[in-house]
Amino acid sequence: MSKIVNILKEQKSIPLDKFINIALYDKKFGYYMKKNPLGPRGDFITSPLISSLFAEMIAIWCVAFWENLGKPKKILLVELGPGDGSLSYDLLNSFKNFKKFYNSINIRLLEKSKKLKKIQKNKIKNKKVKWIQKISDLNSGPLIFLGNEFFDSLSIKQVYRKKNSYLEKYVKLSKNNKLDFFFKKAEKKLVKNIKKYKLLSSGNVIEYPSDAIKYLEIIGEKIKKYNGGILLFDYGYTKNKNKNTLQSVKDHKYLNILSDPGNSDITSHINYSFLTKILERKNLKIEKIITQSEFLQKLGIIERASIISKNQTFKEKANMFYRLKRLLHYKEMGVLFKTMFVHNKKTKFSLGFK
Ligand SMILES: C[S@@+](CC[C@H](N)C(=O)[O-])C[C@H]1O[C@@H](n2cnc3c(N)ncnc32)[C@H](O)[C@@H]1O
Predict the structure, then answer these.
(1) pTM assigned to the model
(2) Domains, the chain, ranges and CATH?
């Protein structure tokens, strides 16, 4: 907290997106820079850590996509924000069952946190895997970008509309060095973009994912140039909500965003219709956004679990199906989590989406 208090003493106020970036990614103070937040003993759990069946389904999808692209001799899988490395680790294990594909695939990981990078390096010891600093460094393809809960961990701006005026959310110090929100007139460029992307359909809260836009623009250009696509899993909504979706989590419980920055996760829900608009501007094909449950079931996750269960003890079976339920049930991760696939228009591939 002291780092943010010091910054605010100097700068008086900072916009919400800057506050989130410091709270999550400041080199010393940032939440993701200090610890591994994932897993039962961390603050939250993600699909790859719940069951390796999640990675298995994605592995099959990647192999089918590669076949559809004409089995290129080389293909790059770029995982965005790999956390503790579980997804790429499990993907590689599954890829080994498809020899030709395994020979063609290489993996690039984009990770901001040095702490997590170290955990990933200890977990995945495979020459096929390298870490990259920036997406702009990628200069060959085809490319498969893959992200699970990557975009929800990027910072956002929030703007409130009051009739015809637009007010941006900032953080400042109030009495006793406590953090507080307040609003300032939004800059013209931001208001122009909000109008350009038609971000306001109802309500009066506009969430503007400034970082996601930067990433998607460059990812879109790479897909256009080198062919391939992007497969995303994240929680979010498909129609503009205009609601405040910011949330903070610590020890698997929600807390106020301002109460423990640097020691709690801060995320927001993905506005899929907005992400779609960014990629449509790159003239790419966006498959219908579906739920995580639909995608995994179309790829045969239940059938696969049934086959595996034949050689399992009752306890193992119960554990596997309990985890499967967490991935698929509408009250758990099955429906709030959506899957999005965007690719070059010349590619005709929609496995899992039709
Ligand atoms: C919510 S975690 C998800 C981890 C993992 N994908 C999973 O599903 O278990 C977000 C991940 O994205 C990383 N991350 C966030 N912003 C990033 C950025 N701008 N560049 C690279 N990695 C980033 C975090 O450090 C973390 O590894």
Answers:
(1) 0.96
(2) 2-343 (3.40.50.12710)
